[in-house]
Amino acid sequence: MIEDVPPRQVWEALMSNPDAVLCDVRTNAEWNFVGLPDLSQTGKQPVLNQWQVFPTMQPNPKFLETLAAAHVEHTASIYFICRSGTRSMAAAQAAKAAGYKHVYNVKDGFEGPPDARAHRGTVAGWKADGLPWRQG
């Protein structure tokens, strides 16, 4: 079972745990056009590792290879984030199956669910919680 962790709790873990890692599994288009978590206050950078490859949205066959290439240890606390929490849950499950011991899903992701006007980023998630982010 992969735990859903609220974004603020993830931020606190990134600030206090030197072994905590944020792995953003959205697509390169999302990173460029929607924005990225800004971890500069933590002294870290997010690991950018597409779960699905834009524009075909096929599974990334090098997902685990890219995670290893980023020097993410199997004992690190890894928090996976996507737009709303679905792809990141799948990525966390794959990492767990590959032997990563402490994997978590960022609840509601970077933008969360759409609001009444079908806009994301206002209801829940990293952006709605007011956590640092920047345009790609």
Verbal overview:
There is one protein chain. The chain is of the alpha/beta class and 136 residues long. The chain contains 4 helices and 9 strands. It has helices spanning 7-16, 28-33, 63-69, 86-97; strands at 3-5, 20-24, 36-37, 47-48, 52-53, 58-59, 77-81, 102-106, 133-134. The longest helix has 12 residues, at 86-97. The protein is globular and about 40 Å long.
Features:
136 residues, alpha/beta, five-stranded parallel sheet, two-stranded antiparallel ribbon, 4 helices, 9 strands
Q: What's the SSE pattern?
A: EHEHEEEEHEHEE
Described by strand count, sense and barrel closure, the largest sheet is: 5 strands, parallel
Structural class: alpha/beta
Low-confidence stretches: none
Which whole number gives the mean pLDDT?
A: 96
Question: How much helix is in the residues?
Answer: 25-40%
Beta-strand portion reads 15-25%
Q: Note the gap between the termini.
A: 32 Å
Quaternary state reads single chain
Total DSSP E strands: 9
Provide a count of the helices: 4
Radius of gyration: 14 Å
Sheet with the most strands: spatial strand order: 1-8-7-2-4
Q: Which shape, going by the Cα principal axes?
A: globular
